[in-house]
Specification:
The complex is composed of two ATP-binding proteins (ModC), two transmembrane proteins (ModB) and a solute-binding protein (ModA). Keywords: Metal-binding, Molybdenum, Signal. It comes from Profundibacterium mesophilum KAUST100406-0324. The chain is of the alpha/beta class and about 260 residues long. It is built from eleven helices and eleven strands. Helix 3 packs parallel to helix 4. The protein starts with a helix and ends with a strand.
Length: about 260
């Protein structure tokens, strides 16, 4: 097994283990949230629990994985996806309360390199990215299933770079696992959200993908069809000025911007 593949397996396993609620843990609400929301949503969760006395369990993973778990009967009360397609899929299947759906956030797609001091680089020009990669790999979330990977592939195609790097991509189960590959040095470059780069001290943004190179990045949130009544209040809170400020500090684009 090549070193980057071993690192990918280890990072993905560690992330998934840490992200899932403890077996048998009782909670007033169970939230399924895209992995990129982790840092900000943990702060919002703590504030909400302190304010209301209720207990929230949050499971972080790629939006595709979470959607499939809901299809299989996972008892989530609230689903926050990193793109609209997986939410549309669950609405069509009658598993989401479509009337509760709303976009709560936006984001930006960036190219990162290891180290806080990495200098900006014209890596989005033809030939520049492969030159910067050297013998290494480009870390991305799954390009056919996970929103960050889908956006990333679309951006590379739009810029005429996909054919150049497609055989150099190390695909991770979610965007935070791709981030960890770069932070650990297992991959020299990675494509993540701007909020992910903000959450990690060991990476730097060296380029930002033009908005027109991919579909707008939106985070829809909605109650599941079987959501407990308490879930609506937390969903409403995600759009409050307090929560939106926390998201903005974490690098997200506030709703409506």
């Amino acid at each position: 097994m090549r070193p980057y593949r071993a690192a990918l397996s280890w990072v993905a396993a560690a992330f998934c283990t840490a992200a899932m609620p403890a077996p048998g843990a009782a909670a007033d609400l169970l939230v399924f949230a895209a992995a990129s929301l982790g840092t900000a949503l943990e702060r919002i969760e703590a504030d909400w629990e302190a304010r209301t006395g209720s207990d929230i369990a949050i499971s972080y993973a790629g939006s595709s994985q979470l959607a499939r778990q809901i299809e299989l009967g996972a008892p989530a009360d609230l689903f926050i996806s990193a793109n609209g397609d997986w939410m549309d899929h669950l609405v069509a299947g009658g598993l989401i309360d479509g009337q509760s759906r709303r976009d709560i956030l936006g984001n930006t797609l960036v190219l990162i390199a290891q180290g806080r001091g990495a200098a900006p680089h014209d890596a989005l020009a033809a030939g520049a990215m492969t030159a910067r990669l050297g013998e290494g790999r480009l870390a991305m979330a799954l390009v056919d299933a996970v929103p960050a990977g889908i956006y990333g592939r679309a951006a590379l195609v739009s810029l005429g770079l996909w054919e150049e790097v497609s055989d150099r991509v190390a695909q991770a189960d979610n965007v935070r696992a791709a981030l960890a590959l770069v932070a650990s040095g297992a991959a020299p470059l990675g494509i993540v959200y701007a909020s992910d780069a903000t959450a990690q001290d060991d990476v730097s943004v060296i380029a930002t993908f033009p908005e027109g190179s991919h579909a707008p990045i939106r985070y829809p949130a909605a109650l599941t069809a079987g959501a407990r009544p308490e879930a609506r209040a937390f969903l409403d809170h995600l759009g409050s000025p307090e929560a939106q400020d926390i998201f903005a500090q974490a690098g997200f684009i506030p709703a409506g911007t």
